[in-house]
Amino acid sequence: MKGMLKRKCLLLTFSVALCLSISLSAHAVEYKMALGDASGGTQWALGERFGKLVEAYTGGEITLALFPNGQLGSEQETIQNCRLGTLDFSVAAINNITPFSPSVGLFTLPYLILSVDEAVTLTQGSIGEELVQNTIKSAGVRILGWSYSGFRRLSNSKLPITKPADLKGLTIRVPKNAIMIDSYKSWGVSPTPMAWDEVFTALQQKVLDGQDTPLITQYVMKFYEVQKYITKIRYVFLLEPLVISEQLFQRQTPEVQQVFLRAGKEAQEFCRQFLILFEDSIETELKGEGMEFLDPADGEKEWIEKATKEVWPKYYKSVGGKEKVDAALKAVGRM
After folding, report:
1. Strand 192-193 with 237-245, pairing
2. Are 139 and 247 in contact, with CB atoms under 8 Å apart?
3. Domains 29-150+239-277 and 153-236+286-327 alike in fold
4. 106 three-state secondary structure
5. Which of 11, 211, 243, 280 is deepest in the core (most CB within 10 A)?
6. What is the DSSP letter of 186?
7. What does the DSSP assignment read for 198-256?
8. Whole-number Å distance between alpha carbons of 194 and 184
9. Per-residue pLDDT tens listing for the chain (335 residues)
């Protein structure tokens, strides 16, 4: 992490209260947490803070070991392992939870979320709580906190892109997520679904021309080594929940369950502050690495109109009905 980020990181340091004491077994236990991204990003910020809080609130009786860079498998694999009870915790992009709990796909609808504040409103309000409960029932994992990772910005190595027509002829990676695939199709391009752990190499070898991820992710994953241009589209605000195996959660005492819930909420707030503090600085860092930033033409109007018109109706049923989308829009004051 560069000097400017190191200095700003000091502003995020705060002490953790050590006064909470709970009754645990006589032996300390260490749990494993999988992260898809490298250390230093928002996934790490959420997971590391959660681990420190849990350790502090249990007097060191519970600790967490973090495994970044997909060491424990792809994000979908780690969610599957959590639901089976063979993995304890995972931090994964919301689109990788959608296959197990389709209703959370609501948060991947293009342009549903247009700001950090809207993301907070939706995840921390009644809609977010409903999705948490749905995920427990359908996926067998419990969301303890949300990582606010920022908008997925489009990067590529070929040319400046400001309008959908500029995508013609480019090979763009998207996650293996139907809503996100169809978003690109609405712009006239057939994207290439690919697992996250394969993306950097594919960009490096020119198998792919571009991809989309938040700026923080592009920085910590060093995409500036294989990409040149970033288009500041806002089609998806990336949420990356921290989940626990529901089997593991239910094996805990009520006191430990409350520790996990409390630590998740506090780590979530830390992650929100982390994003707000760092995102502008990271744009500066990426520019310093030679990346060029472009604003979408016409205020992103064409991107928005095509995606919302063609994609939203197709997925109303899977996300819980048009009424759920309308409720989300009302919650953020856009209906």
Report:
1. unpaired
2. no
3. yes
4. helix
5. 243
6. H
7. GHHHHHHTTS-SEEEE-HHHHHHTTGGGT--EEE---S-EEEEEEEEEHHHHHHS-HHH
8. 14
9. 555 454 454 445 444 444 444 444 447 899 999 999 989 899 999 999 999 999 999 999 999 999 999 999 999 999 999 999 999 999 999 999 999 999 999 999 999 999 999 999 999 999 999 999 999 999 999 999 999 999 999 999 999 999 999 999 999 999 999 999 999 999 999 999 998 989 999 999 999 999 999 999 999 999 999 999 999 999 999 999 999 999 999 999 999 999 999 999 999 999 999 999 988 899 999 999 999 999 999 999 999 999 999 999 999 999 999 999 999 999 999 98
Look at the alpha carbons of 295, 298, 301, 303 in this order and tell me if their dihedral is positive or negative: negative
Contact indicator for 246, 143 with CB cutoff of 8 Å: no
Domain ranges of the chain: 29-150+239-277, 153-236+286-327
Q: Is 84 exposed, middle or buried (0-12, 13-18, 19+ CB in 10 A)?
A: exposed
Structure tokens at 283: 């744009």
Fold of 153-236+286-327: D-Maltodextrin-Binding Protein; domain 2 (3.40.190)
CATH 3.40.190.170 fits 29-150+239-277, yes or no: yes
Q: Is 244 exposed, middle or buried (0-12, 13-18, 19+ CB in 10 A)?
A: buried
Instruction: State how far the Cα of 89 lies from the Cα of 120, in Å rounded to an integer.
Output: 22
| 175 DSSP β-pair partners | none
